Amino acid sequence: MANVVLVTGVSRYLGGLYARRLSHDPSIERILGVDVVPPRHSIGRAEFVRADIRNPMIGRIMSQAGVDTVVHMNVIATPKDMGGRVTQKEINVIGTMQLLAACQKSESVSRLVVKSSAAVYGSSPKDPAMFSEDMSPKSLPRTGFGKDSVEVEGYVRGFSRRRPDVEITMLRLANVVGPTIHTSITDYFSLPIVPIPLGFDARFQLVHEDDAIAAMMLATTGPAVGIVNVAGDGFVTVTQCTALARRPVFPVPLSSGSLLGAIVKRSGLADFSTDQLTLLAFGRGLDTTRMRTVLGFEPQYTSRSAFEDFARHLRPAVPGVDGVGDAVSDAAGGTAAAIARVFDRIQP
């Protein structure tokens, strides 16, 4: 039973949203919200503590407050919000190491909840249609947030061996979307013209921001469940998303995606990593059986309805032109097939 909860990353959007939702639970006696900068949003009745999880001081905070539950929300997916990839990796990897070291020394900590990501599965043409939690990817992510997530989970597994008395839950969230959250995937589909991998129309899953927080709440207050995939029902494809977002598309060869990504990233419009490009080319599927049978969670949004909620709050690519969505939608159905036929003809 969680009584004194420490939440990392409360100054970020999801961390703040989680802290506010947790504040409504009368069974939680005290909530400590930790981050390096003060939050610009409400964190409910959580007490803000300015601290860096990369600093051993986090251990003293746990000890003084008698923390029994640690919720690690500070695994960062978007480097542009943190000043670059170096800072992102330091917070994700070094920060997690220091946090777990503090948890290991703490006599009061009895539960650890970690916001992980489906990015640990990577994305490749050799992957299974659906990843269950006990499956390993054919090709591990080698760069970026996906690599960080793999390392974070590795450290958590090591911690569980050293402290078998601590209950652990890790939620591997699909890409999170919603009307107000900003992630690499929402930034991507907010571009005025969306570059898509030439000859591909991958299917993938999404989870609504409200469902992501509801699942984290259940992981905190319910029984420990180990590793669980979390995603909305069904799939969406890249061209379906561009149609719903009322965005024209710009097909680019997969081989030139890295160069295009660097240009988009420098423009400040979106984080466009190699990992994201492979996801948009090859897709990813998650088996959510454990989400229902073990975690006991039922998402309110499907993958499609989650994206629709995001798209409803998105400005048109051409301001004042309401029909652009219909035009893109009509064209999207045949775009991938047409591109594929042209691509096949030009291959040697």
TrEMBL record:
It comes from the Bacteria. Residues 5-230 form the NAD-dependent epimerase/dehydratase domain. Pfam families: Epimerase. This is UDP-glucose 4-epimerase.
